[in-house]
Amino acid sequence: MNQTREPIPFWARFFLKFADVCIFDAPGKPRFKVAWAVDIHKIATLFIIYAMMHHFQNFSTGAWVYLALHGIYGYCWLIKDFAFRDHQLNNKLSFIGFFNLYALLIAWYWLIPYLFLSRYVEPSGFVLFVAIALHTLGVVTMIAADGQRHWAMKYRTQSGLFTDGMCRYTRNPNYLGELMLYAAYALLAAHWLAWVIYAYMAIYFLARMKGKDHAISRHPGWADYKAQSGLLIPWRILNGRALYERWQEHSARAGTLEEAKG
What we know:
mainly alpha
């Protein structure tokens, strides 16, 4: 077994330690599942955004599109959570940790629709197209990735790397999906502060990705897997290498079948 682990950069260790101290290991008796906090946020978002629309009397086409995207995403999350919850969300928080989870992480997402609705932004048709496309691809990518991980962990008989399916060319397809869909909200808000919130979320996600690389690099085959996959971006898909590799695999299978027939 490979004993050399991927190092975690100092900034990532600091960020993860900060989250542990303030949220996951906060003082007090653990009483509340992380899933409860996240699910409440997902349920409430639809109603909070609609309340903002009512407060600002902003019922434009763009506002309804934003409500459909950001508001209904929470219910897509709930379907996933009920079907195959990430086991880490069953960890429990103290009251202080529960409060800090909102204060330091998830409540900031509600500022993005505020920036969009309070400023009466009117996105162009092209911006709406890009936002809806990003959001749709992001939701599908995130849920498909979480589903693959859940069922693979449930039914496989030995530990090891996930190197196929959604994880073949990116080691973090779930984070990729979430970053895509939240980019749609920041794009619609059209405000620098929305992108600051997005960057803050992305840095936290990146720290968790670095921590994950450190954890999974203990498994055999890590060096080869790292070489074929991106930390986040599936570069081999974007540069066409993945398509070429699939064509080679198809050609090899076809040649094997011809030999067997012969």
